[in-house]
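#structure-requests
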Amino acid sequence: MAKKNSSAPKKVVLAYSGGLDTSVILKWLQDVYECEVITFTADIGQGEEVEPARKKAQMFGVKQIFIENLQEEFVRDFVFPMFRANTVYEGEYLLGTSIARPLIAKRLVEIAKKTGADAISHGATGKGNDQVRFELGAYALMPDVKVIAPWREWDLLSREKLLAYADQHKIPVDYKKRKGGGAPYSMDANLLHISYEGGILEDPSFEPEESMWRLTVSPEKAPNKPEYIELGYQRGDIVSVNGVKMSPAKVLIELNRLGGKHGIGRLDLVENRYVGMKSRGCYETPGGTIMLKAHRAMESITMDREVLALKDDLMPRYARMIYNGYWFSPERKLLQTLIDASQATVNGTVKLKLYKGTVICVGRESKTDTLFDMKISTFEDDQGAYNQADAGGFIRLNALRMRIAASRGARKRSK
């Protein structure tokens, strides 16, 4: 256990879910650091009631309790900007957990400043990425803040020790957790996705049981009839679904519903954590999977070829910035400015077909910003819009370096 010292904080803002781990942390902070604890619970669409966290915090004598609905801010200021870049980590992961952490870090710091707290605390372990994301975000916004990460300090490193501590201090524990029931893995949910990891999933050869998935039906059980949807875009963001204007959060909620219905967005991935180890995770991102497909389709007719290529070149680096916790870094902000500027012409509609785990673009249109000119691209008579004879010189110029290299090789072989 950590020991009380003269530099210990007087007031700590704790990212509090109300679950076993953070409830133990709350009491542990009060006992070990002898400080006032302020709790902050963020509702970012995890799909469960957050108000019980208030009652638990009150049981521990917490006077300042913050419970906030951040769903609109989450999608508008974090998810949508990320999808403007078509962001994918290691070719597959849509960063559902990663993109939520900077928002939580931001609010932790804002509450600390508002309440005069000199420290923040979180329940991330010393093996994962989240500790990095929380703390890099906090330091970027409040350089002198003290961060308390109990999993790096205490000796409660097993479920049994956590339960024993909970019993000792009369911390309520869910019956299923006490009996070893419930899910045999950990889950983290928000409006963008649900992640599953740990427990039985630590064996990368183990196929998850169908009962694990919460947001999506299996593709085999999805409707036998495809469903068509139309998404409206303004400056790279979805503003309507099937002609109905919606706020950012409502857009994602509706796309999650549609994608889940058709078995879209499941992923089983072994990824590389920033701290160095490999980790197996399973993810459900139905709405995000639809968004990625649709956004690329919208860009395909509204964005210049070289601008799109530049974005694609930069995307993996941008994805690593988010995955590794650098949302508030100067390099991510600079890159976001470029990405956002590229979206000025990404306006129009995309038509998609959803069917048994797949998203297929079947149409795209922009009445104001399209670069697709049918008069030029047609295989029929273009009435002189494109001179096919120009292609001969274009090909010869582009082949020049290869012809020179081939001639050099021929000379060497003839000697």
